Amino acid sequence: MNRSTLGKEIKRDIASLRENYTKGGIRDEDLPSQPVPMFARWLDEAIESEVNEPNAMSLATVTPNGAPNVRIVLLKGIEGETLQFFTNYTSRKGDELKITPSAAVSFWWPELERQVRIRGRVEKLSRKENDSYFQSRPRESQIGAWVSRQSSPVENRDALKERADKISQKFGDDEVPTPDFWGGYSIEIEEIEFWQGRPGRLHDRILYQKTDGKWSRKRLQP
């Protein structure tokens, strides 16, 4: 599709789409010395505000040739200064994290006019942690983890349905075990930026960075 054709497909003038943010601000005197309590408070407020999928985060990894790759995953835990999510270890993101165990994530809560960006090192969770979370999932989701060879081509939806039926029959009424190829990752927070929309595009941006185990904080220009 060339540029002129693309322009005809879009019904609205994208350049004219904009919002004037007015719902809040970040005062320096309200900032904690460490960022995780503030992140937890913002996440709680997103949940209380009934933001759709408040724990959804864009996860960026790096391909073997150094290109960025991003997708949405769900935050499933906060432990200390780490974030936890779960996936198929043989997926594209799993392959990429195996080679480059670092990632960036971002949260966007439009109802609150807030964004959070985080970067850090990534490690696999323990088998015990994987089992604990896997057994808390609905049985349908457990079966789905066994069925999906995530990121691999599939002939059609019927093929997935047939595989799901076979897996369901295999386990019957027994407990569904955690697949060896499925589990969690933790992202150790090394850098986190809080963004609050402000009028006139004079947004608040607060950046925390951890060096040698100690946190520093600075305000960034919008």
Give your account of this protein's structure.
- This protein is α+β, with helices and mostly antiparallel strands.
- It has a single domain (24-138, 176-220), classed as Roll (Pnp Oxidase, Chain A), CATH 2.30.110.
- It contains six helices and nine strands.
- Strands 1, 2, 3, 4, 5, 6, 7, 8 and 9 form a nine-stranded antiparallel β-sheet that branches.
- Helix 5 crosses helix 6.
SSE layout and pairings?
Blueprint: H1 3-9, H2 36-48, E1 56-62, E2 68-74, E3 77-79, E4 82-88, H3 92-99, E5 102-109, E6 114-124, H4 127-136, H5 139-147, H6 157-171, E7 182-196, E8 204-211, E9 214-220
Antiparallel strand pairs: 1-2, 1-5, 3-4, 4-7, 5-6, 6-7, 7-8, 8-9
Helix pairs in contact: 5-6
Task: Summarize it.
With about 220 residues, this protein is α+β, with helices and mostly antiparallel strands. Helix content is about 30%, strand content about 35%. The longest helix has 15 residues.
